[in-house]
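Hi C.,

You asked whether I'd gotten around to modeling the 682-residue construct. I have! Everything is below, sequence then structure, no commentary in between.
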Amino acid sequence: MAPGKGNKQEKAAAAQSNVLVAIVLADSFDDLFQPLSFNKPRCLLPLCNVPMIEYTLDFLASSGVKETVVVCKSHSQAIEAYIKQSKWMRAHSPMKIKITIVRKPNSLGEALCEIDDTPFVSDFILCTGVVISNMDLSQLVKAHMANKHKDPEQVMTMLLQEATPSHRLRDKSEESVYVINPRTNRLFSLDSVSSLPKTNELDIPISVITDNPEVEIRADLIDTNVYICSPLVFSMFRDNSDYQTVRRDFIHSISTSPLESGILNHDLAYVSHSGYTAGVIDTSSYDAISRDLIARWAYPLCPDSNPADETAYSYNRGAVYKADSVVLGRESRVEHHVMLGSNSHVADFAQVSDSVLGTSCRIGEFATVRGSHLFNEAKIGKGSVVERSIIGERVNILDNVFVERGCIIGDDVTIGPNVRVPEFTRIARWLPQENGDDSSDSENYASSDDESGLDSDSDSDEGNGKGTRNTRTSGSADERPTAASAAAPGTTGNALELESFDLNLHELRQSIKCSFERDYDVGVAGFEINNLRFTFNGSQEDIRRIVTQEILKSIDVSALPGSAEHVVSRWGELIKRTVSSNLEQVNVVDIVERFCALDRSLEESVRSRLFLLVLRFMYELDIVEDMAIVYWYNKASEKADGDDVSQDLVQKIATFVEWLEESSSEDEEGEDSGSDEDEDSD
């Protein structure tokens, strides 16, 4: 090599990277986030209370991108308005942003076809508007340009992230298999293996194996939706304008087409061994990325270093992030991995865990929010439960509503009171304003989607389904669709129904007694009880009351306290399975009190003692928590004797309740001192 030639090449590559521009696709061309995306594009939906496009723009700017073209079709006015008022339009902004509106496209390929490619004389970055990353793309750009110098026909470099088989960002519906040259990172082949249904076949061209001395077959890589492309990509998409995605359609097509398979040899797979990069492709990945940010896996990209520069969050013990003006009830419980937006309020005896609350959210007494995302101004009523769901802006969930896992509730919807929303249900109020991204439906609907995909925890995720079965709701757009509550069995006034209901309750009691006598496994007994519940369409409250009463009846009061401890330890799990909220725990305490006060088989001398012992053992076994017992005691103390409560029993547990309150105060002081120590160490 001639002297100085290498330096000139490096300078040329550096010059090209300095003028590298990015294309951000703000549309997703699917309906996976409906109904949340009916009136707002996916890229403007909040992720940890920050619009997702903000993460993408910040990521590009920190990688040295000087100009970004945001391509949008639907909700273009909302995107344009957001960009204009953002920090990216300020005089000192490090990156220039241009918005390009395309009118006709219904796919990624059609969108790229409509873009004026004249300004793109050099290679550019292509990504979606929902990419979250703490990486610096400079290394990827250098790798791309170095290979581009060796192979001028190189079309694309795709950024891949290593992931373990159990990683929560992995697509559970299919597994992508990459065939790569381990020395040059050339991508020879890309195939997808379906998981649902499971297939054991892999399609790799035989020439890939015979023509190359060494290949690497990898199934531990995740597509990050970040690509560096040659201007040749525009012409290739014009020939295949129906492509929806880069990986599944564009790259997979040219890897399987006999006429274009040679093109793939000009693609590079850049595998990142460090840093964090991921794209939000569905509700499952949305939930997983949110968990990663809160758990600080993408540090320094985390809630207390907010890229929007609008709200400051403080980091507290247990990965709990609090904004300003957050109000927590003294008896509330905000547990691990929680983000609380400004002006949020969590009432006494409410419980929030593994969740994100937006600005001005309200959580009522005894409400439970687990693994969920609540957008701004959402309200959860007293005793309601929200499990692993996404709740839109200004949603009002009234008292005693159970929202099962995987539900998506659109903006401005009111639900309840006293209803259960089945799992994977989607409920909307508003009509979509325009066709396009996430807006293919033109009517309000309440749908049941059995495979929504939003059901991920720290270890695993459910599969991602794409189908939707819609049940239309009638009425004008001004009406608020509210979930209807089925009448409880026995409330119709029909004597025949009442008799049938009583017979079924008797059958349930007999089944529980049989389980006790034959010493069934708790799992088997629970299965039998659940089957009987569905047989006579009984409520969860009926089951809870009957199970608790039958367990109490099986205690030998002549052998206290040993008999009470044995029975509650052996069968208490059955009660626990009927409880899903703090308010239902209070109901268990009430059932125990009513049994001890009114059961005719009990002598007066053992009523108070049995009540205290059962509560103590239930507390020790985590069937009921201290806050439920304290709340019941405080409410019961206000009632007159005989007014649905026995004051003798109430006074019997006074010392126990006092001990619970002291223990709770000591735990809070310990947590506060631990938090102070953590802050000092930081």
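If it helps when you're writing up: The first strand starts at residue 21 and ends at 25.

Thanks,
B.
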